[in-house]
Structures are given as C-alpha cells and as structure tokens.
Amino acid sequence: MKIAFWSEQKGAGATFNLAVIACAAVCLHPVSVAVVSGRYHDEKLERKFFGKPRHVPGITEAAYGQRAAMAEETQEYFLSSGLECLLCKERREDLTEAIVKANMRQVVKDRMYCLPANAGREYEWWYRDHRFVRMGRVMDAVESYFDLVFIDCGSRQDDYSKKVLDEADICVLNIGQDIDDIGEFYRNPPKFKGENFFLLGKYFADALYNRKNLQRIYRIEENRLGAIPYNPQLHAAEQMGKIDGFVGNHVGEGAGRKDIGFEKELIRTTNLLLKLAGLVA
Q1: Are 251 and 236 in contact (CB under 8 A)?
Q2: CB under 8 Å to 176, separation ≥6 — which residues?
Q3: Which among 16, 238, 245, 14 is positioned nearest to 108, based on CA atoms?
Q4: Coil, strand or helix at 155
C-alpha cells in the first residue's frame, strides 16, 4: 500500500505531516511502516527523525552511519548502504527483505524504517538518471515488506513525482488554512488514480476554514478530511529530529495526555487514513 504526500503550495508541510502521521500509525496500530523520499537526493524527510547531518569534508552522510570508500580511479565517494546501494542491484530477486531493511534506518524498532536518500549529486533531470530508473523496482520491493509505504513528494511538479502520485493507492493532499484560493482548491482538487485524502497542517480549530466549515461549504466527506493541529512543542521536536519521540509521548502506549486537543485530532486523522487504506476497521 503506497500513500503519497503532496501539496500544490510550498510551505504546506507535506514532509512534516507525513512524518507525524507515520509515527502515529505505528504507535496506534500493529502495522509496519516505511517512509521514503520521492526524490534522488533529499534529506528533509530523514531530518525529521535523525536531525541535521554533521558536515564532514568529503562525506556528507557520515552522521547517518553509512560507510564510504574512496574510489581511486574517479576520486568519488560511493556509499555502501542506503538508496544508492539498492539502486545498484541488477535484479529484483537481489532486493530481499534482509537487504532492503539493512539499507534503511530504524525509526521505531522493528516497526518503522526510513530509506536514506542518495548522497550523490542531483542534476536537473535527476529522475532520468540511468540508475534512478530502477527506483520503481526498489519501491515495489519496499512495499512488499511493509504494510504501508509513505512517500514524500513535497510540493514538486517533476515527472517522477507525478508518476508516484498517479501510482499511489492514496494521495494525501496537504493544504494550509490561510491561502486565498482555498475555495478553488476544494471545488477542483487535483485528480489522481488513487483515493484522495485532504490534510490541513498547522491546524487551528477556531480559524475561518476549519474542518466543519470546509465540510459544510464544499461538501467534503467527513472521512476524507484530516488535520494536524499546530503545536509549538512538536515543531521544536522536529528541529531536533525527535518527532517520533514526541508523537509517542502523546498517542503511544502509556502516553501522558499532555494536549488532549492535539492528541484527539491526530488520532482521528491517522485512523481515517488507515481506514481508507483498509488496515483498520
């Protein structure tokens, strides 16, 4: 089951929202989740869980625990793990569960994994790279080993992101409450082959365009519209790469119930999305 997060507008927080809901999913239900960036070289998703990488001259991925070796002939670095390693596999049968998970990083032990982005240089036409064309095969392998695969498409408009959105089982369309053309968005939302799910990030229940008003005015189905309330502590946790810990403290087993409004809305949204995916009743 592939679920793609995307937004027409920059700054809608698609990556952030993906990270929060993915963590909530594994806290609330016995599901396994993989989170993957839909781009050749994009560390934004990884930083939600692991923080900013240390800047080591010549090896930018040192903080991710990936070993690098110098190739004397080309004077370039080649990673021995992560996405690049999986893209190097010539055959689908080489992408076993053990190999795939060995090249991912655990966010929640045995339940949630993140696929590190490629550390190589990204060109304008990165999605046409002869090696990146194997990404579809890698994604299929990842999907076969997890209940859910969350794919971060950000607000990109490139051909590969469009392909991901067209192939996704569910497209989570992220949007803010304060944009001028919010009415036009809900009257004529983007159309993809999969199911659409609308998500309000940095949500304020007392704003003009809250969930109830959007459902009433634009006749949006109640089970197709979720929200993640604005929470300053959560955004502070994001800056430190500790989203999983924060979400676990609020909705996980034995959670402290520190913010009932935030917790209820996040649980509701996560359950609606997993219900649409057919994973919960």
Answers
A1: no
A2: 9, 11, 12, 13, 200, 201, 202
A3: 245
A4: coil
Query: For residue 149, is it within any domain?
Result: yes
In a domain, 141, yes or no: yes
Domain membership of residue 281 (yes or no) is no
**93 within some domain:** no
- CA-based nearest residue to 79, from 109, 111, 115, 107: 115
Of the pLDDT bands very low, low, confident and very high (cuts 50, 70, 90), residue 82 is confident
By three-state DSSP, how is residue 195 classified? strand
Where do we find the tokens 């089982």? 169
Residue 254 binned pLDDT confidence (cut-offs 50, 70, 90): low
Domain of 181, in residue numbers: 2-51+107-276
E-state strands within the chain: 2-6, 33-37, 68-71, 76-79, 105-108, 112-115, 148-152, 170-175, 195-203, 225-229
For residue 52, the Cα-to-chain-centroid distance in whole angstroms is: 17
Domain of 111: which CATH number?
Answer: 3.40.50.300
Spatial CB neighbours of 165, under 8 Å, sequence gap ≥ 6? 4, 6, 153, 171, 190, 192, 194
pLDDT one-digit tens code per residue, 176-227: 887 777 888 888 888 899 999 999 999 999 998 999 999 999 999 999 999 9
Residues shown for the chain: 281
Give the C-alpha separation, 131 to 138, whole Å.
Answer: 11
pTM, rounded to two decimals: 0.87
Half-sphere exposure of 183 (CA within 13 A, CB side): 4
pLDDT at 43: 87
Question: What's the total number of domains in the chain?
Answer: 1
Mean pLDDT lowest for which of 30-44, 69-83, 244-258, 267-281?
69-83
